[in-house]
Amino acid sequence: MNRSTSIEAYNKRIKKILITEEEIQNAVKEAAKKIDAIYDGTPILLISILKGAFVFMADVCKNVTVPTEIAFMTAKSYFDDVVSSGNVEITMDIKQNLENYHVVIIEDIVDTGRTLSEIVKILKNRNPRSFHVITLLDKPSRRTVDFSADISLFTIPDYFVIGYGLDCGEYYRNLPYIAEYNQDAE
Ligand code: 5GP
Known about the structure:
CATH class: Alpha Beta
Bound molecules: guanosine-5'-monophosphate
Order of helices and strands: HEHEHEEEHEEEE
Radius of gyration: 17 Å
Oligomer: single chain
Distance between the termini: 9 Å
CATH architecture: 3-Layer(aba) Sandwich
C-alpha cells in the first residue's frame, strides 16, 4: 500500500467486514457503562496508546459519565506492516503524576500481549490509585505472554485487521468498522 495505489486496489484490500459500526458502537456503550459502574462518580484518567486506539478513545470518552481526563502515549512494537517484533519502546510519555489518578488504559488490540504487558508494568510502577485495562479487540490465539485486559469488547481470530483506528501502512484507520485485511491483493 503506497500513495500511488489506485482506489480500486485500496478497496480490494478490505477483505471482509468482521465487526460493523453498529456492533462497535453498542459494545462501546456497554463498556462505558462498566467504567461508570466501577468508578461510581470518581474522576478517572483515560490513557490511550496511539495511534491505533485514538478512535476507540474518542468513543469511550464520549460515552462515560464520570469526570474524565485524557492523556496519550505512543509505544513502538511493530516495525513494518504485518510482522510483530518483540521490542517495546515508549516513544512519547504522559506528563501526569499517576499517584493522583485512577487510570484506565484504552488499547486497540491485544495480539501477542507484549506491548501492553510492558506498558502496564511501567505505569503500575508509578503507583496509580487504581488501574484498569480496556481493549477493543483481543486475539488470544496469538498470545506469547500471560496477559489479559480487564474489559475486552471483541475476541477475534488470528486475522490482520484494519479500521476504527487500526491501520495497514498508516491507511484504513478512518474506516468506521473493523475489517480483515486482504494480504493477497495486489
Ligand atoms: P502486541 O504487542 O499485543 O503483539 O501488539 C500490539 C500492537 O500491534 C497493537 O496495539 C497494534 O498496534 C498492533 N497489531 C496487532 N495486531 C494487529 C492487527 O491485526 N491489525 C493492526 N492494524 N495492528 C495490529
